[in-house]
Amino acid sequence: MNYNELYQQIATKKSYLCVGLDTDIRKIPAHLHKESDPIFAFNRQIIDATAEYAVAYKPNIAFYEAHGPQGWESLQKTLDYIPNECFTIADAKRGDIGNTSGLYARTFFDPSASGLNFDSVTVAPYMGEDSVTPFLAYDNKWVILLALTSNIGSHDFQMLPVDGRPLFEHVLEKAITWGGPDRLMFVVGATQTAQLSRIRELVPDHFLLVPGVGAQGGSLAEVSRIGLNSHGGLLVNASRSILYASDGTDFAQRAAAEARTLQQEMATYL
Ligand SMILES: O=C(O)c1cc(=O)[nH]c(=O)n1[C@@H]1O[C@H](COP(=O)(O)O)[C@@H](O)[C@H]1O
């Protein structure tokens, strides 16, 4: 999916909601455990319930690969089920020496190799340019680079001063020389709004993937006030607050209600 198609979808749905498919077998409703593939059975109903409110879906790969081959199968079926108009994110946080990154890119971007055909993958910047550029070698595929993450550990390295400025600023400045706003996005945690104006100064046109509203307590209002640009420019993710709004047979209805509440708030900011 390209930049304009993504923006068009945001404008049409009046939403920049990304539903995170962090599907935890221990948290899904008991009645689904009798299904042959409980994870897919859960995801299918979540996708059906939220697709009118969401522009993107983000399966977190850990929740699938933890189950071995059966988990990869659930992931494949889930990806194939996501409506075509929605942007898809493999939240895998990969990155390694060049030839290894090349194989990670094939895993998520080359259906003839792996069966998977994601629009984007999350990548860690720590190993530098040659660990990131193999993901940029695929047409119409995106890298979503970790810039300033939502967790407390973000202070350990990302906020460390380097030449008088936090390390994450150097990551942003360097990375925009590798890919433009049509190929590269950045992860910025919703808990990091104190840094968001500065981030928007450095990358005014790039999309930001913003996780951390809902269960991690980030403010959609604050993120939107500072982070939106003329093309939307944000994908705001919520996972647990949508997926596990109920653990009963009404889980999909409750997920829809959560997604709708977020979408309606987003519509007021667009
Ligand atoms: O890359 C991510 O998506 C990510 C980056 C980050 O800084 N913080 C963060 O929470 N995430 C992911 O976003 C999702 C957040 O889930 P909830 O807190 O349940 O909404 C999880 O899949 C995390 O792995």
Describe the structure.
This protein has helices at residues 3-13, 38-50, 62-65, 69-81, 98-109, 111-114, 129-132, 154-157, 167-175, 193-202, 220-227, 240-243, 251-269; strands at 17-21, 56-59, 87-94, 120-123, 142-148, 161-162, 165-166, 184-188, 208-211, 234-238. With 270 residues, the protein is of the alpha/beta class. The chain has one domain (3-269): Alpha-Beta Barrel (TIM Barrel). An eight-stranded parallel β-barrel has the order 1-2-3-4-5-8-9-10, surrounded by five helices. β1, α2 (38-50) and β2 (56-59) form a beta-alpha-beta unit. The two termini are 21 Å apart. The model has no long low-confidence stretch (mean pLDDT 97). The chain binds orotidine-5'-monophosphate. Residues 20, 22, 60, 91, 122, 149-151, 187, 189, 211-212, 214-216, 237-240 line the site of orotidine-5'-monophosphate (OMP). Keywords: Decarboxylase, Lyase, Pyrimidine biosynthesis. GO terms for molecular function: orotidine-5'-phosphate decarboxylase activity.
- The CATH class designation is Alpha Beta
Which range does the strand content fall in? Answer: 15-25%
Terminal CA distance: 21 Å
Helix fraction bin: 40-55%
Number of separate helices:
13
Bound molecules: orotidine-5'-monophosphate
Rg computed from alpha carbons, rounded to a whole number of angstroms:
18 Å
CATH architecture: Alpha-Beta Barrel
Query: Quick one: how many beta strands?
Result: 10
Count of distinct structural domains: 1
Alpha-beta classification? alpha/beta
Average residue-wise pLDDT: 97
| Unreliable runs | none
Query: Could you say which overall geometry the principal axes of the C-alpha atoms support?
Result: globular
For CATH, the homologous superfamily is named as Aldolase class I
